[in-house]
Amino acid sequence: MTFTCEDQTTQGWGIGWGLWNSLPIIDRIFSFDEAFTDQATHIGGEIGKVQGTGTMTITIAALTVDEQAQLCTTGDLTWEVEFLRTIPRGKVDAPASHVVRVA
Poorest-confidence range of 7-11, 70-74, 82-86? Predict the structure, then answer.
């Protein structure tokens, strides 16, 4: 992900989450809002049985080159997820996977 800061500099980050069992999904809709000491994450969307879509924004605290505090954000991003399951012949307990794309 690319974060754009208040001073117009950018930062590239790779981020991963494990959110299973922590998202209340009501009528296919969910939201996740968390603020830590230096990062705020907002994710929401709609999840069906085999796919889902939504939006996300992440904001972080950072320092300018002269060590002043500033915010950097991804801005509004969209995401989609698709449930994939390939069952090899004769293996009904094969693991499933999910593919998530963020734009």
Answer: 82-86
84, 97 Cβ separation under 8 angstroms: yes
What's the CA gap between 76 and 81, in Å, rounded?
A: 17
Q: What is the DSSP string of 34-58?
A: EE-SSEEEEEEEEE-SSEEEEEEEE
Beta bridge partners of 95: none
Among the residues of the chain, which ranges form H helices? none
User: What are the sequence ranges of the domains in the chain?
Assistant: 2-102
Percent of the chain topping pLDDT 70: 77
What is the chain's length?
103
Is residue 62 a contact partner of residue 52, using CB atoms and an 8 Å limit?
no
Give the whole-angstrom CA distance, residue 68 versus residue 55.
Answer: 30
pLDDT in tens, 80-99: 988 776 666 666 665 656 56
